[in-house]
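Sequence in, structure out. Go.
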Amino acid sequence: MTTGLVFYIGFMACGKSTLGEQDAGKAGARFTDLDKVIEENTGKPAWQLLAEKGEKAFRNIESRLLRQVVEKWMEDGKPSQIVACGGGTPCFHGNLDLMKSYGHVVFIDTPLETILERIALHPEKWPLLKDNDPVVLYGSRRKWYEKADEQRVP
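Output:
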C-alpha cells in the first residue's frame, strides 16, 4: 500500500484532494491537503489568497509551506502520508524536484473535459482562469505533470 511520502499532482479540479483523502483512509496513512495548510497558515482559502496577493506571492507561500510539510513528515518519523498539491505546485520553485527527492509523485490524469465541467460549477475557486484560458494553462502545465513517477487515470 502507501508507504513513505506520496504527492498527488495534476491540474485544478482533477480530484487530487478527494482521491488523496480516500486513498489515505484505505491505506491507514496520513493525509495532507496543501491548500488546507495554506489556509491554516494564512487564514484565507488558497484561491482567495491567490486572487488577493497575485500568483508570484502565492507561489512563494505555497513553496515555503510545501517544504514545511516535508520537514514535519521527517520530524514525525516518515510515516505513510499522502499530500494533495495545488494544480501549479509542481511548476514553480523546484517543488517537483523536492517532491521527487523525498517521495513518490503521482499525476492524477483526469480527462480535461471532466475538469472543465467541475471548474464550471465553482469558477470563483480558480482565479487564475480570469486571465488564462484553462485549455492553454492545462497544456502549459502538463509537461510538469508528466514528470511524475506514476500516472493514474481516475
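Check: Residues 5-152 form a domain with the Rossmann fold fold (CATH 3.40.50.300). The mean pLDDT is 95.
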